[in-house]
Amino acid sequence: MKRALRVMMTCLGLLAALATSAWTKLERSKRPAIGSPPSVETPKIARRPLANGLMVWFVTRRELPIVNASLLIRAGSCQDGDWAGLAAMTASLLDEGTTSRPAVAFANAIEDLGATLSAAASEEQTTVTLQTLTKHLDAALGLMGEMVVEPAFATEELERERKSRLQSLRQQRDQPAVVAIRVFNQVVYGESHPYGRPGTGTSSSVEGITRDQIRDFYRRYYRPKNAVLIVVGDVSEAEIVPSLERAFAGWVQSLAPDDALAVPPRPPERPVAVHLIDKPGAAQSEVRIGHAGAARTTSPDYYALQVLNTLLGGQFSSRINLNLREAKGYTYGARSSLGFRRGDGPFVASAGVFTAKTDSSLIEFLKELKDIRTERPRRRPSWPRTN
Amino acid sequence: MSVARLCWTWGLLALAATPAGAETLRVPVETFTLENGLRVSVHEDHSAPLVAVNVWYHVGSGREVEGRSGFAHLFEHMLFQGSAHVGDDQHIAIIQEAGGTANGSTNPDRTNYFEMVPSNYLETVLWLEADRMGFLLQALTQAKLDNQRDVVKNERRQNYENRPYGMEFIRLGELLFPEGHPYHRPTIGYQDDLTAASLEDVKAFFSRWYVPNNATLVVAGDVRPGEVKRLVAKYFGELHPGPKPPSLRPQPAALTADRREILEDQVTLPQVSIAWHTVPFWADDDAACDVLAEILAQGKSSRLHQRLVYREQSAQSVSASQSSRELAGTLQVTAQAREGFTLAQMESAVLEEVARLAKQGPTEEELARARNRAEARSVYALQPLLGKADRINRYVTFRGKPDLFAADLDRLRRVTAADVRRTAMTYLTRPKVVLSIVPKGRRELAATESGATP
């Protein structure tokens, strides 16, 4: 009996040893250890002003023969005043002809280089972006300077641009997501608030904007001291400065206008309300839920809010998406975001949801928005699988 | 200055570089194949402490069976739902906890999966990818399939049904390719077929196509090839190969006559798409078709943009592309007419410019511009690590070699004016598809039979 037991125990021992060796071969249910974090070398940033006062920031990256340059001008749709769309139209006319060459010739000159050069306005800034191969850098910067320093704002180009914008505005009505965010901004901030006005303008404002208004906007805000240029790529500060001085030589020095930095006020709180826009036959409902959030520069909660939003709806594995998409299947994706600006930019939770599940989706959204303010713990990770 | 693994030898600086310019584009790749058939490519790029992992399975919607359209893509979704040793919803959660990104995509020819993470998470990502390549089925449930079926149906609603002109892409495939051709049905699938997909289908599809010998793996970034080899062998080495996947041959399709169709949609402006059959990826005339599309309607300097948007101001937008896939290719021009103009006018302008190119060919200036843009695009494309990794897998899967970056650019550089003229004459004079999408009740705006203004 004793012997039999001993034999059995030996056998068990052997089995255990076999099992162990199989596991040590590769234990897949054990998540691999993570090595120590790699050291990160942050790029060296240099800066110096050009002769005209334009501040330039430089980062040299030699991996690829490419240079990227971004000119940021401190003015956007917040400076539109009564003429919604003014900043946007001014920006988009920059590359539609200069005093040296008409629109078509300018477009050809850029594309001849294989470079990309464009301008666009957002709420609080206008950005001119250039990407070029290093070998065409001088020529490409010349074109960038030309469009910033001497845009023609020719009447015929303005009228062409106006026509195009009016058509685009009409086309926005075809796009439920665009309609939704436009109405959202209007409801949250009010039509006269800089964040409530549509940056693309309205039919009547775009109809009415004159060449003089565009030129005035340009003269007022497009100044070297109201802008900053960032250059990143296969070039050193010393190599590029002569090209930059040439490209921006004609841009005159002046003081920055005060109102470019004005902070839009926080809108009054509004009662919770559901706003419906009917689109008969739509396959989905576009949902936008939110309110004014926090300011980038003045809020002490900036980092806490970033973490909060990451839990709530900032990425795929956030609560809102795991609920509305991965648990309920109401949507292809649901998210939330905080638009950090000088003033209190929008907090918005959003999704396109199956029409028949519109009400159920609202319930789940509101539940998540409520739960994030309570003690509900983060879901316990379910790996490794226990079966 | 960090180590640059890409070498660019400077040669001619003139704008109009000779077709075989002295510049070469090099992306060094080390390759090896496991015994189970998994082909692996490693590219070192130490410019940032990141690693990109990219897996291609050589199966897309083209290999679906009748009545199961959309299946390859629905299946792609199932690969993010956990596997034997990875919990539900954990794949992306683990990657995002590391600060990384993960996604996948399906097209008619292939399905890809990719992650980018800090380089110390390389082993974690290989563990995740190997687990779903080898041990997916144990974690499959009907509930997960039902959930992702709903998600995919919403993807279809969001990207096609609820989007202006959203059905254009689906309808063009159906009109260009005959029933039964792998490119006839849309990758996103039909709602009824999605409803019909069963757990058994998922299992069969996995066993048939998701095997190491039908997959290629790229690891690119801040890694050492020796370490990658060791880890890949550790996690993928013991996975079993499947039956040898059948090799594919080009399946050209042809139209015997023009096919015209009008769709009504909730849109403000009418849009016409004109499409012709051309050639598959990397076929002899593929690059010339690229240049042809570019000169026709890519960018503000293109012929149709300058004519319709700048001069005549009759179009809101116009664009063109040569879409060359593994089995066949098509060239498409799309234009939106402004109020007061018709799609017949758009079509006439497109056909006139095609005829002009077929007769006279492009100018030297246009050709030089196309070359410079191609060159610039191939260099810009090397900036995102994930993009580079995906390109390597594209070359491995379709051309059998990983480092074809320079050869790819060279085939564009070699295109001559005569090539562009000949391709316009050969392919764009064939029967075509003309698909008009018009605002509801405005069929008079469509492109009509004669192509003339009604």
What does this structure look like?
The complex is a heterodimer of chains A (387) and B (454). Chain A has 387 residues and is α+β, with helices and mostly antiparallel strands. Chain A has twelve helices and nine strands. Chain A has helices at 2-25, 86-93, 103-112, 137-149, 155-172, 176-189, 203-208, 211-221, 237-247, 302-312, 319-327, 358-371, and strands at 46-49, 55-60, 66-73, 116-121, 126-133, 227-233, 284-292, 331-338, 346-354. In chain A, the strands form two sheets. In chain A, strands 1-2-6-3-5-4 form a six-stranded mixed β-sheet. Residues 1-23 and 381-387 of chain A have low confidence and may be disordered. In chain B, α1 crosses α4, α9 crosses α15 (417-427) and α12 (364-380) packs antiparallel against α14. Chain B is globular. Chain B has helices at residues 71-78, 90-97, 122-134, 142-161, 168-176, 191-196, 199-209, 225-236, 286-297, 303-311, 343-360, 364-380, 385-399, 405-413, 417-427; strands spanning 7-8, 25-26, 30-33, 39-44, 50-57, 101-106, 111-118, 215-221, 259-265, 271-277, 315-324, 329-337, 433-439. The model of chain B is unreliable at 1-22 (pLDDT under 50). Chain B is 39% helix and 18% strand. The chains are: A alpha+beta (387), B alpha+beta (454). Chains A and B meet through α3, β5, α5, α11 and β9 of A and α2, α3, α4, α10 and α12 of B.
